[in-house]
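Protocol step 4 of 5: obtain the predicted structure for the target chain.
Materials: sequence only (see below). No template structures provided, no constraints applied. The aim of this step is simply to have a reference model before the mutagenesis design in step 5. Sequence pasted as it appears in the construct record:
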Amino acid sequence: SPVQRRIVLLGLPGVGKSASGNTILGSEKFDCNFNSVSTECVSESESVDGRLLQVVDTPGFTDEVLNPEQLYEEIMKTLVEASPGPHVFVILVRIGNISAADQRLFELLPKLFGGDASKYTMVLFTHGDELRGSSMDQLIQSNSYVSDLVSMCDGRYCVFDNTQRGRRLQVRELLNKIDEMVAANGGEHCTSDMFRMAETFIREEKNQDHLNTKKLRNKFSRFTLSLTYQSLP
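Step 4 output (structure tokens):
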């Protein structure tokens, strides 16, 4: 059976999560309508280079798009979509538009998904064409936000330039780095009490109600919201 990889895309609005999800899967699965800002988690799957990939596209992490309670509900839906746990959280950052908000997103990960979530995290820089002849190493050295974010992820990063022809090579490099990270983590995916709770909840509810995924994740997010929303910063 093919190797499974569950990939959760995280980032601020406008960084290109949906477009990058389509690039990774090699097909137009996610809606990239620039007039609409995603406010829901969407999960799509595809076989790519001998791996069965499940990519979860999440809403942009900002109070301007969702209020904190709605944002938390969508994060809980991510737990259901990525159950029993993601192999990697990919933080997408747009080159040319990098700020302290990208760092804050990384710092939120352990609070949202469990203390060891950072071990399962890497950075994907989008709009690589905006490097305009500079190298990524130069950008990392010259921008403290970039260097701090990359070091927080133990140096794990990739660059996507969606204007180039070599998209599949970029995807192959990303998947190889994810494989290396999974191997370094002993072949394990990210687990936390929240993911374990999601898995138990899914199993029990499916046995009882035969709920479809959308109803199930909505029910789970309401359930966890009542338990843990107060503990968020």
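Step 4 remarks: The domain at 3-231 is CATH 3.40.50.300 (Rossmann fold). The CA atoms of residues 5 and 155 lie 20 Å apart.
Proceed to step 5.
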